[in-house]
Backbone:
């Protein structure tokens, strides 16, 4: 069957979702967390550093400069936690691009890349570390070898790949968290560098642990949740966008999501999903309202379902669009209305056309598709966004706001 020839399906699961609304201000560190049963984890983990502050570039979240003439230890250690299967944990170099080390994850497993006068190598192995638990990582450069231990067990051991730190000609080592000091294209094996993860209890050789960006980090809106679960957290006024035509071919859209919102404030309206056409109008939208979820196809077809009562909601949401019907189901309750074939064809054209856009969580304030004032941005958690069985990764978006937690929710 041809792509979107007869059906468009959107599936969402609303979990720990507040039936009451929230204000128009983004959630910040600790905001409403103390008294909110849906977001107790928002209060954060004091002393931890979120290294996922940047998307779309390799700018490090934090950096340290170490004077190698003062080094008496060849070991660095820290605790690390993530649900993100791929990205850079830390990168170190001697001030140029000729001698560097990178530790990251790929498919959830530790990966080391080394480039220097001795070798250029990429090694990956061990068990998965993207389980959302804190792991103690130790990296040691002893003689010509590099050792990686996780939770006291040897994970990777590489020999004849380096030379002792104290014998290096350069006097300064730079360490970058969650980013690189060189273009991503210069890595031995390309990587999606963005890492939604946290570190704590760090010790870099025997030197100062003062980040160069200390003042900036104190003001960062992205902290480390005290506990986390899989998903993508939108604190408000953020969005992710995709070009539908660039997604896998022949797909019928069926994102699977779950939503988390605070219950202690009032007045929430928020965009969950929208498909925009080349002329900057909306072929399909799915909106959260104070007491209902509203699906809109074109300009004339609308369908809404009331939100169940209660402080936190956990129920699947299923939207089905065909040339003749628009159907919406929330948990055990559903409804459908007759739709017009031209509206479906318009949606199909937007999905297949190069100018079409899929927006999640919000719309640009300016530019190609301005946000209708009555819509507002979504605040909460979306889980497991799928497109024809393919998990949609926010790290691969056409655009994604930096302040979105791409792989974790409180």
Residues:
């Amino acid at each position: 069957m041809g792509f979107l020839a007869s059906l468009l399906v959107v599936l969402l699961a609303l979990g720990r979702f507040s039936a009451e609304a929230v204000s128009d201000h983004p959630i910040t560190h600790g905001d409403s967390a103390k008294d909110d049963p849906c977001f107790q984890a928002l209060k954060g983990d004091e002393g931890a550093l979120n290294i996922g502050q940047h998307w779309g570039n390799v700018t490090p979240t934090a950096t340290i400069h170490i004077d190698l003439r003062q080094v008496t230890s060849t070991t660095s250690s820290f605790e690390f936690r993530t649900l993100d299967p791929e990205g850079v944990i830390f990168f170190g170099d001697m001030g140029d691009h000729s001698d560097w080390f990178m530790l990251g994850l790929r498919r959830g497993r530790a990966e080391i890349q080394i480039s220097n006068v001795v070798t250029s190598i990429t090694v990956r192995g061990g068990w998965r570390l993207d389980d959302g638990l804190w792991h103690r990582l130790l990296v040691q450069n002893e003689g010509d070898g590099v050792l990686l231990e996780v939770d006291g067990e040897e994970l990777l051991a590489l020999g004849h790949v380096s030379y002792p730190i104290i014998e290096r000609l350069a006097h300064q080592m730079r360490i970058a968290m969650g980013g690189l000091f060189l273009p991503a294209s210069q890595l031995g094996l390309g990587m999606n560098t963005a890492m939604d993860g946290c570190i704590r209890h760090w010790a870099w050789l025997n030197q100062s642990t003062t980040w160069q960006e200390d003042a900036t980090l104190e003001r960062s809106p992205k902290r480390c949740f005290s506990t986390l679960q899989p998903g993508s957290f939108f604190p408000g006024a953020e969005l992710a966008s995709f070009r539908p035509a660039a997604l896998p071919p022949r797909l019928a859209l069926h994102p699977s999501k779950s939503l988390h919102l605070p219950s202690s404030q009032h007045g929430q309206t928020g965009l969950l999903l929208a498909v925009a056409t080349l002329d900057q109008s909306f072929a399909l939208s799915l909106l959260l309202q104070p007491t209902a979820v509203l699906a809109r196809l074109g300009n004339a077809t609308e369908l809404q379902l009331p939100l169940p009562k209660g402080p936190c909601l956990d129920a699947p949401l299923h939207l089905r669009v065909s040339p003749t019907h628009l159907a919406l189901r929330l948990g055990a309750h559903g409804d459908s209305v007759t739709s017009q074939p031209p509206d479906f064809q318009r949606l199909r054209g937007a999905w297949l056309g190069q100018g079409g856009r899929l927006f999640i969580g919000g719309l640009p304030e300016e530019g190609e598709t301005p946000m209708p004032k009555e819509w507002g941005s979504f605040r909460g958690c979306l889980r497991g966004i799928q497109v024809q069985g393919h998990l949609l990764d926010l790290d691969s978006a056409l655009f994604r706001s930096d302040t979105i937690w791409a792989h974790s929710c409180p």
Summary: The mean pLDDT is 80. The chain has two domains: 44-220, 232-409. The longest strand covers residues 8-17. The domain at 44-220 is CATH 2.60.120.200 (Jelly Rolls).
